[in-house]
Amino acid sequence: MNEFFIPAVGSQAGPLLPYLIVAAGGLLVMLVDSFVKTLKKDHLSYLTLFVLLGAILVQITRVPQDGPVLGGMMLIGAYARFFNFLFLGVGVMTTIFATGGFDRDGLYRPEFYPLLLFSILGMMVLAAANDLLTVFLGIETMSLSVYVLAGGVHGNVRSSEAGFKYLVLGGFSSAFLLMGMALLYGFAGGTGFADLTAALRGDSPDITLLTLGSGLVLVGMGFKVAMVPFHMWTPDVYEGAPSYITGFMATAVKAAGFAILVRFVLLLQPQTAFAWYPVLTALTVITMTLGNLVALAQSNIKRMLAWSSIAHAGYLLLGVVTMISPAAGDSEMMLRSSEIGGSAGSAILFYLIAYTLMNLAAFGIINILGKGRGEDGEEIHRYAGLYHRNPVAAATLTVALLSLAGIPPMVGFMGKFYLFSAVVRAGLIPLAIIGVVNSLISVYYYLRVMVMMYMKDEEEDTYSGTEWVSVVTSGMLALLVIYLGIQPNAFQRAAEVIFRQITF
After folding, report:
1. Are 424 and 432 spatial neighbours (Cβ–Cβ below 8 Å)?
2. What is the DSSP string of 381-417?
3. pLDDT for the residue numbered 1
4. In the predicted model, is pLDDT for residue 44 greater than 90?
5. Which stretch of 172-181, 267-276, 423-432 has the lowest confidence by average pLDDT?
């Protein structure tokens, strides 16, 4: 295990400043809530936004200081900064949506804000992890906070059930993850990624131990990205959690899972490709297909989007499979520098941006429309006649759903185009065909919601209130969805540059 001291932390405070701001911000919010009794409920949200925007500003204004920190436990670089911006941006949107959602049924949860900040801190640590211990620390910091966020609605049975299921299944996944890490430690003689790299390049690496260890770690990571067969928590937790937390889990938590999964796949190639490639290929196909087919039968919009998120995890796994396909190259360096590996990796990063924007826009509107309507308010039939009651909300949700379906000119179409193009260039034509067919299947259940909004008569007891801050925020996300669908080139090139700069 790498050793480091407090003085070393002080000398590396520059690269760690965004992490320190989020950590200190979480503690500050806790202290302010505990000792300042004159606060109104919106004041903690303003403080949380100040912390998140401050961390974003620091990352924008400071000169990048790339390299290992904390004795090599973390690696700061373009890849980590990319995900930091993504996590912090999702945190800003979630705070805005949640503040309006607190009015629901008179509920106010001040613990939400520090938990949100600590979960984002865990994600940031995870994306910069350069050691198996840091990976576990990041995952658990993120997960423990999200468990409470999902099940922390006092007096709500569905929320409590969601949090309990997430906690129990998450505990099982952590056990698999730890066992896999223990085997990898036995294989490499250390927990650092550098130790693993050195062992992989040794004269006679123990492939059996490597395969078993990496397989168990894959189980733990598969749980975080909702990959079949580690997905069963997703529909129940997404449905039971508040909509603003569901949007947070569907975007930030999934992005954090893929952030470490991509680096882990690159780290262990090509030695584990013979085992990972066929297994991941089969799981990718099953994940896409099962997610889309089960989504067809859902009547609850949050459960529908939960199964949809499982299908989108399958699309992203297409990129991972392409990176380790025989056509991508024979070494970690070739994976990043070859046309196939580079295009697949950059397509994953671009798709994560697209997926985040369109899901946040969708869940932002769902959060607004579900206010004060109980469990039945999330049923798809409740969206009947939404266009006549709130055309802005209907238009925003329409853009998000069309993008999720992959309809041009939305960014979802370009994200799938880049992914499927990388798959085709790798010669994996059957996988590309399966992906396209699954995308076509998904159009049905997305269009069903739009038909309900525009072509069905309005129900008399539907909610007609409006939270304009949340509506405007969701509308701005929808505009970004359209803009990136029309002008994706700059972001795609930036994603390619970021992917090629991944180091260990």
Report:
1. yes
2. GGGTTHHHH-HHHHHHHHHHHHHHHT-TTSHHHHHHH
3. 44
4. no
5. 267-276
